[in-house]
Each structure stands twice: as C-alpha cells, then as structure tokens.
C-alpha cells in the first residue's frame, strides 16, 4: 500500500516536471516569434526588391548594378548589427557584488530597515557604487542577492540583473544593455537607411503604378514593388522616431529607464548625472576610433560596472567618483583619447 502511494507520488512529480519543462521550452520558443517575423519581412523584401524590382522591372543595367550593390551593402550591415544585438551574451556581475551567505544572514535577521541599510552601506563601501534608491540606501536586488552596480537593473524576463540596462526588447529577444547598445543603435540606424533606400528607389514605380504606366513587370510583380514601398514607409516612420529618441538618449548619456526615472545620487536625483558632454557621451557608446563607429564590433568604453561622473569641483559625488577611479588602479580613464575599449577586469 505504502509503496503504491510512493509510486503514485513519484509518477505525478515526474509529470509535473515534464509539464514545467514543456512550458519552459514553449515560452523560450515563443520569445523568438518577433525575431522570426522580422526575418520573414526581410526575406520577402529581398525577393520584392532584388527580383521583382531590380531584375524584372529595371531596364538599365547600370541602374540595376547600382541599386543591387547599395542594397546588399545596407542589408549586410543591417543583418550583422541585428545578429550582434540578438546574440550578445549578458555578462555576469562580478562576485564581489554578491552578498556572501554570512552577510545575507545578517541582512535577513536585521531588526529594522535602518539596520539593513547600514549593513548594505558597509558592504558597499569598497564597491564602485554611487547611485542610491529613492530612500537613499544602497541599491540591492533581493532576487539575485547582489548589490546592484550603477545603472544595472533587474530584468524580469531575463531573470537577472543586467549591466547598464536600457530595456528588454522583444524584437531582438534580448536585453538592450551595456554590451549591445552600440549594436542596437547601429541596427536601428541601418534599418532606417534600408527603409529610406527602398522607399526612394521604389517611389518612381509607385507613382507610375497610380498613373497606369508601370512598365514591363507582371501584375504580381507590380503589387510586390508597391507593397514594398508601403512597408518601407511604415517601418521607416516607426524606426525614425525610435532612432531619433535613442540619439537623444546617447547625446545625454541616459538609458531609457533613466529617462523615465533620473538616477539618484547621495546629493539627490540628477538626470544628467552621467553626462560627459555630447561628444564624450557619443564616444562612451561608440568608442574613440572613427573608422569603427559604423561597424558592429564592440568599442564602447569601460566595463558597464563603473562610470565616470562629469568633473564638478564642489560636487561630493564627483570627488568620490574620481577617488574611486584612482583607487581601483592607476589605469587610463575611459575618455583618454588613446583608449578605444577598456576593460577593468579587476573591478
Ligand atoms: Zn537581480
Ligand atoms: Zn531582459
């Protein structure tokens, strides 16, 4: 009797585990749907543009070559940036930010909020963290059991804390963060130019279509070209506004999350707390080598854990920041001209 109850229990727990695994795999597969949708639209646009417009409609060989070369350059850069944004690995937060078991026990057994705050403050004293919560305490993630590095946030979809988190983007099935922000910007930029190029080159045929003198293409071919114009217009408008907004964020050194809620320092909230001037902010994301600005390879400054603050002599936070940059090694600062990508491994 006892063994049959035991067998039933183990069978039901196995079924439960299988169901959970099945749900997990379904959810994982479902998250790729927006990416597949983008790839589907790109594949169709390739057929519409390359075959229906360039091969079946255009009559001039020179025009065909010029359009095809330009189109493929844009497409390669677009897909390369997209690939890099999707497959950039989220980096682990260094162990020194993780609360050891002894500290966690102390934190959980602390009698008051103030006692917890003091414990976290003491533990974070040697960490490069300058930002605080709205109540002024050290930022702590109780799901990851870590002190959050400046600008890091917990992503509920990725189920982890993410360095310089901008937002979780379903269209790339990844968090847009410190390690792929440059790729994301390039992806938006190349996608916008791609749409503008398709629009500009399809427009004369779109006008001809309405006038009724489209030319040699079949009826289906004509609809593909006209539809390509409309789809490029629709995506161009949404990409243009999103790219413009992110250019604004880059120029002010803000993430999307920081644009909604300004980072809090000991002296209070400061929406421009990380801004190093427009060009400095641009270089923080795109690096110092102009020939790599438009190439989707990693050239951002720093390691996503510690960030310099603008120099202001009277500002206590700035002094603290400068002290800390010095204390963590006599290493070049991120804005030194000779440094295109620094990695402060020891931080
Ligand atoms: Zn977390
Ligand atoms: Zn995420």
From TrEMBL:
User: Where, subcellularly, is it found?
Assistant: Membrane
**Catalysis performed (reactions):** L-cysteinyl-[protein] + hexadecanoyl-CoA = S-hexadecanoyl-L-cysteinyl-[protein] + CoA
This enzyme's EC code(s): 2.3.1.225
Q: Domain of life here?
A: Eukaryota
Write out the entry's keywords from A to Z: Acyltransferase, Membrane, Transferase, Transmembrane, Transmembrane helix
* InterPro entries (UniProt xref): Palmitoyltrfase_DHHC, PFA4/ZDH16/20/ERF2-like
Family per similarity comment: Belongs to the DHHC palmitoyltransferase family.
> Which PANTHER family does the UniProt record give?
PALMITOYLTRANSFERASE ZDHHC16
Q: What is this protein called?
A: Palmitoyltransferase
Provide the species name. Plutella xylostella (Diamondback moth)
Taxon lineage: Eukaryota, Metazoa, Ecdysozoa, Arthropoda, Hexapoda
């Amino acid at each position: 009797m006892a063994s049959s109850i035991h067998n039933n229990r183990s069978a039901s727990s196995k079924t439960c585990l299988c169901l959970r695994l099945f749900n997990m795999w379904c959810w994982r597969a479902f998250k790729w749907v927006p990416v597949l949708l983008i790839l589907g639209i790109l594949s169709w646009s390739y057929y519409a543009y390359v075959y229906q417009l360039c091969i079946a409609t255009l009559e001039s060989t020179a025009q065909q070559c010029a359009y095809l070369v330009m189109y493929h350059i844009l497409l390669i850069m677009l897909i390369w940036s997209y690939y890099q944004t999707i497959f950039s690995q989220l980096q682990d937060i260094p162990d020194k930010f993780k609360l050891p078991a002894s500290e966690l026990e102390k934190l959980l057994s602390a009698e008051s909020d103030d006692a917890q705050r003091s414990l976290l403050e003491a533990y974070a004293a040697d960490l490069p963290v300058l930002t605080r919560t709205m109540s002024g305490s050290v930022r702590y993630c109780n799901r990851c059991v870590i002190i959050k590095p400046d600008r890091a946030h917990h992503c509920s979809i990725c189920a982890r804390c993410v360095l310089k988190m901008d937002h979780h983007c379903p269209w790339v099935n990844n968090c847009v963060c410190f390690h792929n922000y440059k790729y994301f910007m390039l992806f938006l930029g190349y996608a916008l130019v791609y749409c503008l190029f398709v629009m500009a080159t399809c427009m004369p045929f779109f006008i001809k279509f309405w006038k009724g003198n489209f030319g040699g293409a079949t009826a289906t071919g004509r609809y593909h070209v006209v539809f390509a114009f409309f789809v490029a217009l629709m995506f161009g408008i949404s990409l243009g506004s999103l790219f413009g907004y992110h250019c604004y964020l880059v120029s002010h050194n803000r993430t999307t999350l920081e644009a909604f809620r300004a980072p809090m320092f000991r002296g209070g909230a400061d929406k421009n707390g990380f801004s190093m001037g427009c060009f400095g902010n641009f270089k923080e994301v795109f690096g110092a080598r102009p020939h790599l600005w438009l190439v989707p390879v990693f050239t951002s400054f720093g390691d996503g854990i510690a960030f310099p603050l603008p120099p202001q002599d009277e500002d206590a936070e700035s002094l603290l920041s400068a002290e800390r940059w010095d204390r963590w090694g006599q290493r070049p600062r991120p804005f030194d001209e000779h440094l295109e990508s620094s990695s402060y491994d020891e931080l």
